[in-house]
Amino acid sequence: MDSRKEQILKAIIKEYIFGAEPVSSKTILNRYGLNVSSATIRNEMAALESLGYIKQPHISSGRIPASSGYRYYVDFLMDNDNIVDKFNVLDINTSNIKNIHNYLKEVAILLAGLSNYTVIITEEKKGEDKIHHLKLVGLLEDKALLVLVLSSQKVKDYVLSFLEKISEDELKKLTEILNYYLIDKNMDGITQELKQEIINIFPSNPLLVEEIFKIVLTALYEERNVDIIVEGLKNIFKLPEFNEVKKIENFINTLEDQSQLSKIFDNILGQEKGKIDIKIGDEIGLEELSDFSVIATNCSFCDGIQGKIGIIGPTRMFYEKNITLLESLFKQKEE
Amino acid sequence: MDSRKEQILKAIIKEYIFGAEPVSSKTILNRYGLNVSSATIRNEMAALESLGYIKQPHISSGRIPASSGYRYYVDFLMDNDNIVDKFNVLDINTSNIKNIHNYLKEVAILLAGLSNYTVIITEEKKGEDKIHHLKLVGLLEDKALLVLVLSSQKVKDYVLSFLEKISEDELKKLTEILNYYLIDKNMDGITQELKQEIINIFPSNPLLVEEIFKIVLTALYEERNVDIIVEGLKNIFKLPEFNEVKKIENFINTLEDQSQLSKIFDNILGQEKGKIDIKIGDEIGLEELSDFSVIATNCSFCDGIQGKIGIIGPTRMFYEKNITLLESLFKQKEE
DNA sequence: ATTAGCACTTCGCACCTCCGAGTGCTAATA
DNA sequence: TATTAGCACTCGGAGGTGCGAAGTGCTAAT
Description:
The structure is a homodimer. Chain A is an alpha+beta fold. Helix content of chain A is about 40%, strand content about 20%. The first copy, chain A, has eleven helices and ten strands. A five-stranded antiparallel β-sheet of chain A has the order 7-3-10-9-8. A three-stranded antiparallel β-sheet of chain A has the order 4-5-6. Chain A has a two-stranded antiparallel ribbon with strand order 1-2. In chain A, a hairpin with a 5-residue loop joins strand 9 and strand 10. Chain A is globular and about 70 Å long. Chains A and B meet through helix 5, strand 7 and helix 9 of A and helix 5, strand 7 and helix 9 of B. The structure holds a DNA duplex.
């Protein structure tokens, strides 16, 4: 990727984000001052296509960005221009705020209005559940069952697969270690430090410990008292590329399905607050949302209520603007 | 409306509810055993059209029901067949019920699934606001200002118009009476009986008292802590007549606008619980929803939480089934 | 390495035609 | 007088055609 290719890729993405139409070599020539001819740009575009960054909807049409093109853009090319009007918590309509739920709804409505995309906020009241105890049971030589008993008497089990074989003895030892450290821990207690400590004590299979921690965290997470707020569904109708009922249906279906929705936030589960996560297209992990991108972050509200805020828009979303939006929201909350 | 016209109207509505396509004279002839020819049916259809019960999308097409046709059907022709699987509260997925809000969400999801339409539930926590005092101020000879001060220090004012003139003295007298009876009353205190009592004491203008009561009730109502749950948006995509993005957009836009939504329940505000209200097309009072009907009822949940449940579907909705659905929900709640 | 020029491809719009479905009307019938 | 058979008429929608605009890839020249 020489500088000229990057310039052209950036031009294509900016144009496409703005106009939602395939970008031609001529457009780039006219609007971006590269001192080369359209034929040269075409050659570079062919190169960018074979690199996988852009694609053609059909032969003899202009180019549109591919997912990896957006990823390259977000990682390397994006300007951090702060043109965006700073998000202002004061703009919230305070007249119907009577509790945290109402407040979050107003935040969602405001963010949806500012971003022009759809906003998802999860409201998570601290779950009371803790690990009561857990057990690892060997199944086959490369599989084991993780049985998890929670304080609420719920029992959950998960099948673990190992890359390498593990002996019964080792499983027993790991069970003991895990119980020693995890019993009576709630979600807040399952920290990265704790994980590291256990890996130090049980160094023979760090990947397995990683996996178990992820499962335990998810299990406790599921027992939290979660409400999901979705606002700005209507904004999808402003996007010219979603001009077919089928596409809208797909979007609404997915956003009405709570179990699917929470997957959007998989990446940031347990991550530090204020860190912005960007998932592009397939990175979301939901086939139905492969035309969308998500910008999300963890957030803590008052009274021990935590949550996640996500902005979901088309892959050709205004990344800079919406990252800035979420960042400035976070900064104001911290103050 | 002789019996044969009613039979034909009923046939047209049943067919259209089922198939969403204009109904022809031949269809009626084939599927409903009227011992007349299609020509006769056509004559009757022309008559029904001039009565306003049905209409033609275009000349030389079959007939579709008009709003007043549905109204006639609901009022006079509908079979109260209880084919519907009885609504069963036990079908609710209890695993994520941790509070009343979650419970209502599950009820909404279940109802949306059973009805195949969109379900709206309002969750109204008792507002603490009471009438602090009120005042009537004469403006012009047929207008006055009603100033309402609530315990929360909120001040609201409304312009009243009278059919007949009212003197300053009478306004003063009414203000005194209203203050005597309404001060320190919360929403529950504003009863029909109280209204009747005041009308008895101040018999010169019952309509005015009615209007003031409505305003007072609405004012306190607005101060309640309301949350609105909407589930089953996706069901709109199952309706063949909503096959255009514009129509879907219109629907979603309206249902995402909380201030519009509450109008759906205007009719049943303060009505007895369990009574089913049916609004067809324009009767909803929202231009955007003129292609929809609403079946709604008041409901009380636990802990003094009240609410309203509404099923919103196309005007060609399965009225019988959904009325039964709501009724059986109510019966089970009462038990 | 770059570029001018050109042949080629595809999309999408506008237009046309044709067929099926359904009506309203007229004249005949019970 | 109420009903009906028959027929001309209308409309929507599916399917086919033609054409221009937009844009590319390739070749040959610089």
